[in-house]
Amino acid sequence: MRTTVHGTAVRGVDVGAETRCAHYAGPTDVIALRFGCCGTFFPCAACHDAVADHEPAPWPRDRFDEPAVLCGVCGATLSVREYLASDFACPECDAAFNPGCAAHYDRYFEGVAPRDP
Ligand SMILES: [Zn+2]
Ligand SMILES: [Zn+2]
Ligand SMILES: [Zn+2]
Fold it and tell me: Residue 49 C-alpha to ligand 2 middle, in angstroms?
């Protein structure tokens, strides 16, 4: 399934207007992450597992200055550096991001260690 969120294509399972999905649908589950394998935005790694036809690869470290995190609330695309420095709030619209994503950083960002939220 492919949805367009503020003009950016997002693939996944039951993707909503602010990038919530079948796996993460809480109030702060409003980002989609771009995968290094296919360059496509997904709300979460389980969405990639469900709909992509290839193994996932995290966004590569040498491209951390490129847009790879989509805010589903305002449509801003943040670089990995901007996202990691954001303290779980969108720098454009101030929407809160789920700190729980930090537990899965290794799946999204190459070489970034997961941490407890
Ligand atoms: Zn992929
Ligand atoms: Zn998902
Ligand atoms: Zn935003």
Answer: 9
CA of 105 to the centre of ligand 3 (A): 20
Instruction: Please tell me the number of the ligand nearest to residue 38's CA.
Output: 1
- Are the C-beta atoms of 28 and 17 separated by less than 8 Å? no
State the Cα–Cα distance between residues 18 and 57, nearest whole angstrom. Answer: 23
Strand ordering across the sheet containing 67-71? 2-5, 8-11, 41-42, 31-34, 67-71, 77-79
Residues of the chain with pLDDT under 50: none
Q: How far apart are CA 83 and CA 70, in angstroms?
A: 9
> What separation in Å is there between the alpha carbon of 61 and the centre of ligand 1?
16
Q: Which numbered ligand comes closest to the C-alpha of 45?
A: 2
pTM summary value: 0.96
Which residues make beta-bridge pairs with 78? 69
Q: Cα 115 to chain center, whole Å? A: 16
